[in-house]
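EI: anyone free to look at a 166-residue chain?
SC: sure, send it
EI:
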Amino acid sequence: MMTESVQNDYQVSSEGAVRHWEVPYARMEDTTPTPTQPAALTSLLVGTQVCGTVLTIDAGDSIAVVDFTCSMVYRQSVRNVLDYVGNAENSWGAINIGDIIYYDGGTTMVALGLKLSTSPLDAEVAANPRFGWAVAWSDADMANFPKGDVTASTQTIAVMQIGAAG
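SC: here you go
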């Protein structure tokens, strides 16, 4: 028999349910997470990790609360690298509205202190999971696109994350 009432918050998804999950540091690509920074969970298959944004951390219990909400928008630092050769950035491009943004955990990005790029592969030629898409934060920000050019740069980009829907 079907009930006529909503049983749990997670069943209300027509407007996009908020998904804040506690995650042990050991299950995260970056085992020293920082609030407001991108996160990716470990996965059996490289490039398939679920990604989100760290909201809070509990260093005592080694637990992070991560926002995996689909379509949530956060401002993030994004490297405009397109590909690598021998662990070094090889080419770059301007970031435009709608461009895919990847969680890039390669050694080059780690050395730069960054986690997001426009490259589908990391410096070790492993697949990067899709994190989300570049979007405009406001009408004023829309006028700033494309951001960057064909030289290496890090841009502040509003990113609509794929989250747990991806």
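EI: The chain has two helices and eleven strands.
SC: 👍
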